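Internal tracking record. Fields below are filled automatically when a chain is submitted to the structure queue. Please do not edit lines marked as system-generated. If the sequence contains nonstandard residues, flag them in the REMARKS field before resubmitting.
Queue: standard
Priority: normal
Entity type: single polypeptide chain
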Amino acid sequence: MIKESVTVLGTGSMGSALAGAFLAAGYRTQVWNRSHERTAASAAAGATAHPDIADAVAASPVLISCLTTFAATRDSLLGVDGLAGRDLITLNSGTPDQARGFARFARCEGARFLGGAIKNVPAAVGDPNTLLYFGGDRDVFDTHAATLRVLGGELEYLGAEPDLAALYESAVGATLLPALLGFFEGAAVLASRGLPASTMVPYSVKWLQMIESLLPVLAGEIDDEDYTRLGSSVELFHTAAADEARLGAETGVDVSWHAPMHELLSRAVAAGHGAQSITAVIEQLKTGQRSTL
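SYSTEM-GENERATED OUTPUT FOLLOWS
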């Protein structure tokens, strides 16, 4: 059964995956990309590719944008007639401020806005364990929940503020690069002994599962501002910095990316948090917030 029409703006790796999921679920799928040749794969799979964004907008009541940024989406839609009365859902990257600005743009154009984030890689689009969360117009979320569930089995509505998805995307995403760099450093350490990175994977998984189990404790200490329950102190991590430097020298691995973290630990010790749980470091991270109050 052919379902309603949906337009996907942006056919990079993620946008193409979104279009593919809609096609597989039986939706009449329209696609547009700033470089029209990049719509070829989606068109070959059955999507209707539009060289003109105005035609792509006119083709569907719901537009799902997966361009790189809010600015790219706004710039692409500037001057396009026909946005009024349509539902505009973004799945691009950006800051909360940029999301709020884009929501104002959508409102001025007469469109209803829902800002979203998809918390997985393109290959996992459509997986029942893939999480998407949204902030903005509740009616847009409720109206298109079945359509959005095609992209992932876990949907969360965070609230009416249009920047909530971008806020949580930034907050949750802050874990990614440090975790990846840590894994890459570990692989480099093993490589110094001729050992493959694959041998580390089972132990890294166990380590990440241990960290996962600690997250409620960490969050509890932070929310209560009671940095006493975890047991792993700031001073413990601060003292380990010297060993990390020695490991780098011994293995020939560049560990200079640790320097800002060590500086943060030193500031926490100097502020009197040495004996407290490592969660007390958040007080140093919040220093910038206090300076703007």
